[in-house]
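Sat 14:20. Reprocessing the chain from the morning session after the first attempt stalled halfway. Input below, unchanged.
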Amino acid sequence: VAYSKMNVILYGISGGLSYGPLGMTHHSLQDIATFTAIPGIEVHIPADRFQSVALIKDLIKNPRPAYIRVGRNAVEDVYNENDNDFDFSKAKIIYKGNDVAIIAVGEMVYYAKKAAEILKSEHNINALLVDMHTIKPLDENIIKQASNIGKIVTVEEHSIYGGLGSIVSRVASNYKPTKVKTFALPDEPVVAGKSKEVFEYYGLSVENIVKQVLEW
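Finished this time. Tokens:
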């Protein structure tokens, strides 16, 4: 598909921990690492239903090989039906700020958004919140902007290896020395449980993101 530049969209349903209770045999935590390593294919992780619809329309209008990762379960809305300014060649800035940069993908964007709102309302910390819906091709300009802040937090439903945190760290280091704290899943057989339970077990929760940013 990628080598021949075929007009094919690979739609990965039930990515991440969607089948959480069924354990490691049903988890998909290495797909981003796999697909980003293939030359010629785009990699997208939409945050909610509105962004998913916009992405499909964009891929149909401008055909190119792509992999889309979505979950199995309903997720909270990050956007609304009036949001129509999605540009899938650029990361989506949800909030502007200069105290810390939070970059998230997929279902984790909602958690990161809630964390950013708590940081602002309760602790007067203004976060640059970025929805990195497109992992490849990557919007390196937004990572350069985040590098200038000096502190970057990445949040993803993926293995600690080869995902958003790894990619952001690689790109950020090209611009200036930057501290990057990655919230991801460890390199081990992940525990079984409902998605939210597993998220909380490994610190992928609103409360823990807030806590870690404050300690930082």
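The chain has a mean pLDDT of 94.
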